[in-house]
Design goal:
- It is built from two helices and seven strands, in the order E-E-E-H-E-E-E-E-H.
- By secondary structure, the chain is an alpha+beta fold.
- It has one domain.
- A hairpin with a 2-residue loop joins strand 4 and strand 5.
- The longest helix is centred in the middle third of the chain and has 19 residues.
């Protein structure tokens, strides 16, 4: 891909043939790394997804210590480099997300301005945020 790479690590046999690791680049730097830790179908209970998120959060916590905060139950850690690590539950996927400092700064600015994290730029009235 021109701005990234997708990998099939074999970690997720249930991923349905889609990549389970995405590395995005911007101006020669790694901007973001997403690792899908598990993928569930609608038939799986939310309880299973929450259990995987809890296990992964405990794993990251054992390395990085207590989370810096949470949003919608998803834990994040602020790194000394100004980067950010997340454990997120998104629809039917549990995701480990690592952000470059520049992109973590954008997230922090949006949080400070009260911009919802599910907003898609250019799709609605953004006058409240600008």
């Amino acid at each position: 891909m021109s701005n990234g790479a997708q990998y099939y690590s074999g970690l997720l046999d249930a991923a349905g043939g889609t990549s389970d690791v995405l590395v995005a680049y911007s101006e020669g730097d790694v901007a973001e790394v997403d690792v899908r830790l598990c993928k569930f179908s609608k038939q799986h209970g939310r309880k299973n997804m929450l259990a995987v998120r809890k296990q992964m959060t405990a794993c990251v916590k054992s390395v990085l210590g207590e989370p810096s905060g949470k949003q919608d139950g998803n834990a994040y850690w602020e790194l000394g480099t100004r980067g950010r690590v997340w454990v997120k539950l998104l629809q039917f996927t549990v995701l480990l997300n690592v952000l470059h400092p520049r992109y973590a700064d954008i997230e922090r600015t949006e949080e400070r301005l009260g911009i919802p994290n599910d907003r898609i730029p250019g799709t609605g009235d953004e006058s409240n945020y600008l």
